[in-house]
Write a structure and sequence with these properties.
The complex is a heterodimer. By secondary structure, chain A is of the alpha+beta class. Chain A has three helices and six strands; from the N terminus they run H-H-E-E-H-E-E-E-E. Chain B has one domain. Helices cover about 60% and strands about 25% of the residues of chain B. Classes of the chains: A alpha+beta, B alpha+beta.
Chain lengths: ~150, ~55
């Protein structure tokens, strides 16, 4: 399955950096190149599934009740894109805000691409974030039933 | 007649197999989140970055 850049942006936000261990790892392997690199805001560099899984889990563990919510539709330009988001406890004012920048690369695989954990349903309805205006896009991906 | 049909079916199956077995997709090669400087001070990313260092 080929994911659009917008889908990759949203799924990375929700399924990789917004999820607990099992679903995060499955999403990571589906969405990321094996040697993909995550550059954190403090100039840390994490390469490959194991390192990215670890840093995503560590970030998640600091505020497990926080959830990410896009505040605009993802933007695509060439092989890259960005999405602006806020994070915090749903129903309360966002604790902080940021923007994810992402670069993708085409790959050729074999077999039918259905890498997906059976415990991770992906597409659910987005939820409103308190009083803040949230962009509702058709098919937007939101936090799911994963722990 | 039967041989011809069998050969056609075999050829069709091979074409279908090739079509299914090769696909092109996109995967993430890099991401970089930036954060509002004010909000970054209290963010989990900042806490984790301090912890790692």
């Amino acid at each position: 399955m080929s994911n659009s850049i917008s889908t990759l942006l949203l799924r990375n936000l929700f399924d990789v950096f917004g999820k607990a261990t099992l679903c995060r790892r499955a999403a990571l392997e589906e969405l990321w190149n094996e040697d993909g690199v995550f550059y954190d805001p403090n100039k840390g560099v994490y390469r490959g599934h194991d390192e990215i899984d670890r840093i995503a889990g560590a970030v998640r563990a600091t505020h497990p009740a926080f959830q990410y919510q896009p505040i605009s539709e993802p933007e695509e330009l060439g092989n890259s894109g960005r999405v602006e988001w806020v994070s915090g406890i749903p129903g309360q004012a966002p604790a902080y805000a940021g923007t994810d920048f992402l670069a993708v690369e085409a790959f050729r695989g074999s077999g039918v691409s259905t890498v997906k954990s059976p415990t991770c349903s992906r597409f659910t309805a987005p939820r409103r974030w308190g009083a803040r205006s949230i962009i509702q896009t058709s098919g937007m991906i939101s936090p799911t039933s994963c722990p | 007649m039967k041989v011809g049909v069998a050969l056609r079916l075999t050829g069709f199956s091979l074409v279908m197999a090739l079509a299914v077995s090769t696909f092109v997709g996109t995967k993430i090669v890099a991401t970089h989140p930036t954060m509002d400087s004010a909000s970054f001070e209290d963010s989990p990313e900042r806490e984790e970055a301090n912890h790692v260092q």
